[in-house]
Amino acid sequence: MPQYQAVKGTRDIFPEEAARWKYVEGIVHALASRYGFSEIRTPVFEYTELFQRGIGSTTDIVGKEMFTFQPDPKGRSLTLRPEMTAGVMRAALQNNLLSSAPVHKLYYIGELFRKERPQAGRQRQFSQFGAELLGVSSPAAVAEVITLMMQVFQSLGLQGLKLRINSLGDTDDRLRYRCALQDYFSPFHDILDDASKERLDKNPLRILDSKNPALQELIAGAPKLYDYLNPASVQDFEKVLYYLDERNIAYEIDYRLVRGLDYYCNTAFEVTSSELGAQDAIGGGGRYDGLARELGSSTDVAASGFAVGMERLLMTMEKQRLFDALVPQGPLVYVVVQQQDLVDHALQIACRLRNAAIKTEIDLASRSMKAQMRDANRMMASYALFVGTTERATGLYPLKNLLTSEQTMLTLEDLLELLRELAAREQLQL
RNA sequence: GUGAUUGUAGCUCAGUUGGUUAGAGCGCCAGGUUGUGGCCCUGGAGGCCGGGGGUUCGAGUCCCCUCAUUCACCCCA
User: ipTM > 0.90?
Assistant: First the structure.
């Protein structure tokens, strides 16, 4: 066993997998840009209070999942970010973004940290991409972020994802509903599990999330949030659904969808993948108009956003074999050296090729020709170029097509010419 | 934090009721082909059997502890 291993809940991403990440990230950047979102990068740690205020102290994330530390005895408590939205909102408020322009559309890709027990689809360090649309209170804003998210899934070729959506109403709606829930559940106090008992006081909405089979019947009979929405909230929700219908985005209304973070209001949504095991949420989001004030803003900031788990996304894509066509690009030419004393000469040639923008590989470990050829074959090089004493003397080098095994003798000048042409053609095919 | 699961070669895994020197496939390296890959053949390297303790004449195998893994609960991406 190695002396050191990766910290629990963290892992390494090796080249083959990194290529898949790059591919997905490329799509995210392209589509976010097409929808008019600009990238923002915020620090991986923030003052702990930001998350306590922003996410809500009753949430599990803040209650038990944060990596919190104190850099020095007098310093303020810091926390590795467990989600992105609070940091983005902080950045926007701190820099008065909304006074320079009333609307801001931001997206991000970044690493998050939560101290949970790892399991399938759950890591202590994980990544999300997401978008935040600030300064627009119209239902068109939520529809816009949902559309972008679904567009990413579609462009990646994902199938069978399920979008569930609900309205949590405005603050007053939720307050009234909260009371109704407390009235409903209180008589059954003895039946509730410990977690639900605690939520009864702090955040009764979250009882609805419970997967405890013993409670399902009771939960099914609970009052519906939808019945407590005021006309404006209903209208807002209907409009969001209208946009989704119009864009052919399939969804399912789920009146019990609540979501774990305190800052949501009005629309909330979640996307699940049936191929993920127990942790099947691949993305989610909603409207969070209350967050800015919670973070000390003197004005309201309407906000909508979503976040998608990269690992879960990649996992689902792998299950659906969406990376099969993603084959690594081998070198165009592999320089094969006959013997030790020619290495420097071969290196010179390799440099010339590379300076001509030709993807070139050469063995630096002085292995046998057979080993070099095997290597070239393994990394799927297109051509092998042989460098030996005769070649150096005559200036004619054999170039072997590794697919057809054809071999032709060329001067270095002709070689550069030919390979440059081939490289250009390869570029076009990509 | 709770429950279960699995730890044997780089990887995937065999290993009998406890019994000599712990195996296979793939991968890696070399040779067959002394200047040329894939396929084939031959050979080679590579193991504190997760760690510690115990039972036993004897432990990869049985018992206890511990560490790690994986899955699930809670919750979330």
Answer: no
* A116 CB neighbours strand B below 7 A: yes
Nucleotide nearest to A64 (CA to C1'): B1
Nucleotide nearest to A60 (CA to C1'): B75
Report pLDDT digits (tens) over A250-292.
999 988 887 767 778 899 999 999 888 888 999 999 999 989 9
Q: What pLDDT is recorded for position A86? A: 95
Architecture of domain A333-429: 3-Layer(aba) Sandwich (3.40)
CA of A398 to C1' of B73 (A): 65
Q: Which nucleotide is nearest to A385 (CA to C1')?
A: B36
CATH of domain A15-170+230-319: 3.30.930.10
pLDDT number for residue A178: 84
Alpha helices by DSSP H, A157-289? 171-185, 194-202, 216-220, 231-246
Where do we find the tokens 């420097």?
A344
Q: Where are the beta strands (DSSP E) in A215-329?
A: 252-253, 265-272, 281-287, 303-309
pLDDT < 50: residue spans in chain A: 1
Instruction: Kindly report which amino acid residue has its CA closest to the C1' atom of nucleotide B28.
Output: A371
Question: A408: which strand partners?
Answer: A399
